[in-house]
From TrEMBL:
This is GNAT family N-acetyltransferase. SUPFAM superfamilies: Acyl-CoA N-acyltransferases (Nat) (SSF55729). Pfam families: Acetyltransf_1. Residues 2-149 form the N-acetyltransferase domain. Keywords: Acyltransferase, Transferase. Gene3D superfamilies: 3.40.630.30. PANTHER family: ACETYLTRANSFERASE (PTHR10545:SF42), DIAMINE N-ACETYLTRANSFERASE (PTHR10545).
């Protein structure tokens, strides 16, 4: 059985290969400095980004999830944005992704958030199969403007 737990400062060595797998899946490269900054934010209890680790029966890390909350104009309570979700490819279809999403939903509900939402690529059909079973597809289309920073 998979266990989902909060990331701990000692987890960097098991988190980072999953993080790198996530970035590779999305064909993205980040600097070592950004990865270190992301890690430090995830384990800093004063920073408003949270992370959890999925661990299998043998103690192997098999998935990660990161989320944050933000104020909203349509709600008095903050919305919860599930920003990153990755499951080791060898563990896909075994319920790890579902468990990670449920962990975030439970956390968000306990913290008064009225909803959890996330984005994925249209072509991410495997993950979308899960998402269609555990959430409502809203029909919104995502746009962004990249700024020079």
């Amino acid at each position: 059985m998979t266990t989902i737990r909060a990331l701990l400062p000692a987890d960097r060595d098991v988190w980072e290969p999953l993080w790198r797998g996530y970035l590779e899946f999305y064909e993205t490269e980040l600097s070592e400095e950004q990865t270190a900054l992301t890690w430090n934010r995830l384990v800093d209890p004063q920073f408003p980004i949270h992370g959890a680790l999925a661990v299998d029966e043998g103690g192997t890390a098999v998935g990660i999830v990161h989320w944050l909350t933000h104020a909203a104009t349509w709600s008095a309570e903050p919305y919860c944005y599930l920003e990153d979700l990755f499951v080791d490819p060898s563990q896909r279809g075994a319920g790890v992704g579902r468990a990670l999403i449920a962990h975030v939903a439970d956390w968000a509900e306990a913290h008064g958030s009225p909803k959890v939402y996330w984005l994925t690529q249209e072509t991410n059909t495997t993950a979308r199969g899960l998402y269609d079973r555990v959430a409502t597809r809203t029909g919104y289309v995502h746009y962004q403007i990249g700024l020079g920073a």
